[in-house]
Each structure stands twice: as structure tokens, then as C-alpha cells.
Design goal:
The chain is an alpha+beta fold. The model has no long low-confidence stretch (mean pLDDT about 90).
Length: about 240
């Protein structure tokens, strides 16, 4: 009598490619791993790349613990252009001239976003109001009142300033929208802005150096993939155990 195949279980760190939704990654992994029980701990927008913590098998039960960790990002903000999604994938709403800001002014503006604060979720987001995702209303051209959410930004540092682009690194609590941070920085500088590039470099204790691409994963056998899975007890923050 043949035994049923062993169900894979654990945390798999994927380097999400651009132009993939987090759900797209789940769908592709279901085909590669031959299992339907797959989830993720923290969504990334389609434009973004980097660390996507995937939960396989019974590890999906640890989602709430892994989603609660801080995230770190590297990206680019483009000043002078405002989009309806607050990132490069949206429609251009307006363009404004970008003054020759001295670097000190950029640094001072970025510093104001450090610490505890409330952030209003973008209309193009999966946040639900009365059970309906905001993006569905946004696609109809509707504006819905959104309740600001508490977030913490522990790092927002300038890497490069060359008009009109700001390269940055940021570390923040769960639920923080980096594109909203970019938009709000543009408003503070009074020239508008949108997020033009984003990579999640860390999620909790996991970094992009530990991740595997979907393309590489497709070249591996299931036993080889199993060796990449991190046991849940090693992945979950110790405070949750």
C-alpha cells in the first residue's frame, strides 16, 4: 500500500519579483510545491520586490505572529509627480516643479516622519470599509473616509538626493504604507511625490539575502525544497512562544 506524499511544512523565504501580486506568488508556489495550503505573512504591492515570507502547510497557523514584525525597505521617491495610487503604477494626477532643495531640507522633512504616528491608508489598498476593499471604490473614482491607523517609523534615512529622486531606507511597523509615506513627504515639501521603486530588504529577522527566487525554486526537487523550509519554532519571534 502506497503512503500518501508527505505534506511540506515550514516557512519559505521568497524574493518576490516585480509585477507579481502576493497572491500570484501563492498560486505559483501551489503548483511548484504540489499543495494548496500556502499563505504569506505580509503583502507586497505588485511593483515591489524582495522578502515575502511564505507559510507552507501547518505553518499558516503562525501567520499572525510573523505579520506583526517590523519590516525594512529600500526604495526611490520621485518628487514633482503625484499619482492616484501613490506609486509608479498609478495614473498621473498632477505634476509640479521641483525646487533645487538643499539636502539639509530633504533630511529635515524626512526626520519629521520618524516615530509614532497615524497614517491614512491609500484609497488603492486592500483595507476594507464595511467589508468592501478600498481599491474597489477607488476604481470607480470614489473617495471613502478612512480612519488613520497607528504606525511606527523607526528609520527613514536618505541614501541619495539627486533632483527629482530620493533614494531611502525605511524601517517601520506592520501595516505601514511606504507609498503613503512617499506621498506625504511630497506634500510636506509642497511639490508632490510618488513611490517609484521599492524593495523589502527585511521582514522581522529575515533578510533578502536569505531568499530564493521562484525561478530557482522551479529547478529544485521537492526534497531539495524541503531543506529550504524553516521550522515554525525557529521562525516565530521568541516573544510569541
Amino acid at each position: 500500500m502506497l503512503l500518501p506524499p508527505k505534506e511540506l511544512e515550514g516557512v519559505l523565504l521568497i524574493d518576490k519579483p516585480a509585477d507579481h501580486t502576493s497572491h500570484d506568488v501563492v498560486a505559483r508556489l501551489r503548483g511548484i510545491l504540489k499543495t494548496k495550503r500556502i499563505g504569506h505573512a505580509g503583502t507586497l504591492d505588485p511593483m515591489a520586490t524582495g522578502v515575502l515570507v511564505m507559510l507552507v502547510g501547518k505553518a499558516t497557523k503562525a501567520s499572525q505572529y510573523l505579520m506583526s514584525t517590523d519590516k525594512e525597505y529600500a526604495g526611490t521617491i520621485t518628487l514633482g509627480k503625484v499619482t492616484n495610487t501613490q506609486d509608479a503604477e498609478g495614473e498621473m494626477l498632477e505634476t509640479r516643479p521641483v525646487p533645487p532643495f538643499p539636502q539639509e531640507q530633504i533630511l529635515a522633512a524626512m526626520k519629521t516622519f520618524i516615530g509614532d504616528q497615524y497614517q491614512t491608508p491609500p484609497m488603492f489598498s486592500a483595507v476594507k470599509i464595511d467589508g468592501v476593499p478600498l481599491y474597489k471604490a477607488a476604481r470607480k473614482g470614489e473617495e471613502v473616509d478612512r480612519e488613520p491607523r497607528f504606525i511606527r517609523v523607526s528609520k527613514f534615512e536618505l541614501l541619495r538626493w539627486e533632483t527629482p529622486e530620493i533614494d531611502f531606507v525605511a524601517r517601520c511597523s506592520k501595516g505601514t504604507y511606504i507609498r503613503a509615506l512617499a506621498h506625504d513627504l511630497g506634500q510636506k515639501l509642497e511639490c508632490g511625490a510618488h513611490l517609484s521603486k521599492l524593495r523589502r530588504t527585511a521582514s522581522g529577522k529575515f533578510t533578502d539575502a536569505q531568499c530564493v527566487t521562484i525561478e530557482h525554486l522551479q529547478t529544485l526537487s521537492l526534497p531539495e525544497i524541503e531543506k529550504l523550509l524553516i521550522p515554525v519554532h525557529q521562525a516565530v519571534p521568541s516573544v510569541a512562544l
